[in-house]
Write a structure and sequence with these properties.
- This protein has 19 helices and 21 strands.
- By secondary structure, it is α/β, with parallel strands linked by helices.
- The protein folds into three domains: about 120 residues, Beta-Lactamase, CATH 3.30.450.20; about 160 residues, 2-Layer Sandwich (Alpha-Beta Plaits); about 250 residues, TIM Barrel (Alpha-Beta Barrel), CATH 3.20.20.
- The chain has an eight-stranded mixed β-barrel with strand order 12-13-15-16-17-18-19-20, surrounded by six helices. It has a six-stranded antiparallel β-sheet with strand order 3-2-1-6-5-4, with helices on both faces. A five-stranded mixed β-sheet has the order 8-9-7-10-11, sandwiched between helices.
- α3 packs parallel to α7, α6 packs across α7 and α12 runs parallel beside α13.
- About 35% of the residues are buried.
- Bound molecules: ligand C2E and calcium ion (2 copies).
- Ligand C2E binds next to β13, α11, α12 and β17.
Amino acid sequence: MDDKYKTRLAQMVECDEGSYHFYYSVADNACFQLSGKVFPELNGDPLKYFAESGAVDESSLSALAVFSGQIKDGIKKGTDKNSLAVDISVKLPDSAGFALCHLYALFLRDEQGKITDIHYDLRPYSQLEIFNRDVLKMFSSDKNPKLYSARCKKVIDDNPDKEIAFIQFDVERFKLINETYGVEVGDELLQFINDTLALICTEEQPFCRLTADVFMIVTTFENKAYLLKFITKIENMLSGYKGMKYRFVFGVCIVEDRTLHTRAHGDNASLARQLIKGNALQNINFFSGEMKSTLKKKKSIEDDMQKALANGEFTMYLQPKYSISTGRIIGAEALARWLHPTKGMVSPADFIPVFEENGFIIKLDTFIWDKACKYIRSWLDNGIKPVPVSVNISREYVHSFDVTAMLLSLVEKHKIPLSMLELEITESLDSVGVQDVVKKMKDAGFKMLMDDFGSGYSSLNMLKNTPFDVLKIDKSFLDEFMESTRGRKIIEHTIMMSRDIGLDIIAEGVENVEQALFLSHCGCDAAQGFYYSKPIPADDFARKLVEVNR
Ligand code: C2E
Ligand code: CA
Ligand code: CA
């Protein structure tokens, strides 16, 4: 080692009694303890030893892992930083509990600038420092939008020749994390995100937690590929905390008009982010001018929805399900329709995602379930032989609201056979599973249909232990795979295999006779789609039922 460094290290050791020093030689993969008597002499990466020693509090392990990863990256790929630091909770030799410590890594380099050695300094914060730190935190940009806004503005002003992006992101369905794993784990996750961002972002990339689970980062960038790489890096480093499954959605606003208030760029990023909700295939969205009109549409849906329910603007349509071989009606799916006084018929594709996001979907769904039961009752009362009606269950509320109890009470209220009400729910891998909920419904006696099978995330693997009774093949799966010989084989084998493991099949979105014949040939006899009938008002359905099943 260079004498210059030796002197410097010696000085640091001497002047700083309360802290512990480690010196790591990259070439020899060896570590020496320079002061303090906490840990024995050791070889290898001190951070690895440290993480495994039990001296680091569990809540700090992920931050330490991120820190460690950055150091490894710096050694391998180089870095322009001279030091890195992280705050972690550590059990020190003379104290009973964990103490908040500052772990600091100073890089020593060779002539080419490659990191050759690292000097680590682990120092417990004093009570006063912890107090100051907490105070500072309260007044830091995290809690102070004005200050944050000023920092963002500085980035814009300091970089007139560079492109600038406002990146806003949140944890999709964060509510579900709280409900599934508990609020404490939810808080921990948010803290982890905050801590990790502190490690990822430089001084020139101000970040901030805006509200519960919404974060913002402002950064300069060279080109879009670089920006996407930066976002992917954030995503990778923030994912998988404690093995949990969650997804981030990012809205990005690239600054065009530099004279606008930073809030305007932030709002645009926020809009881009909010418009992703419910799209399983996309999690990064760039702001564009048209989004404003989409937002307007969403706002007007939200303004009108409560009144719409009270005014009876929502109705239930039924779409018949047919037996391909006999041509008889074997069931129906209940679908919500909104007949708006001025806008006319609003498509569920527009309002369902909005309701799922703002929670109103519970009200609409219970309304539809009630209607479905009511109609089944009326068929029984009028001597019409009923067929089962399936209703849609949204995944949004299944963890927070006892759907099973609600449905049972409706069945009881209308005195209909349980077998006449079937439940459709989508199962997908992109979020917290619904298997336990499905099992509960099935145990209560309901027939369970897996909606939208083959539309994206659902997989064959999922079928292994599935509690579902029926697979509902999605229109997109049918359309796409019908096109090629290979695709048709896949449909055929999916059907065969599902039947083999005791699952029933129904295909939806059947639009022509070729599809119907092909499905029938593959062993799928149940179909729903425009070829047979569009969704129709419930009274029309009752007439059709009598006529077709005569
Ligand atoms: P979904 O559950 O997959 O419902 C099937 C959708 O496919 C319906 O659209 C139906 O009209 C449409 N469809 C049926 N056959 C064909 C066909 O042959 N060709 C084409 N192109 N489309 C066909 P709809 O009624 O617009 O509903 C859209 C989605 O909105 C539904 O998809 C469902 O996810 C949701 N939804 C509708 N009503 C409700 C409800 O009461 N509660 C909940 N939670 N979601 C609902
Ligand atoms: Ca459905
Ligand atoms: Ca479907």
